């Protein structure tokens, strides 16, 4: 999974996806944006986990994933319960 994420180094950040997420989640606008040459951290994590395990850790059919989607994931419930360091 780390190799897949490392491959995004130096690539542009997916600001179009971030803006679309903001409009969709905050204002309810059904706007989706996907630039295959730009990357967003949460989306890359979800994509890498799915590629390696076949498990979709978030319920997103569009591929647009925000950190909140990860926080709400039932697959990551145990991670949220780890003690703070």
TrEMBL record:
Highest taxon, organism lineage: Bacteria
Name of protein: Uncharacterized protein
Species name: Paenibacillus aestuarii
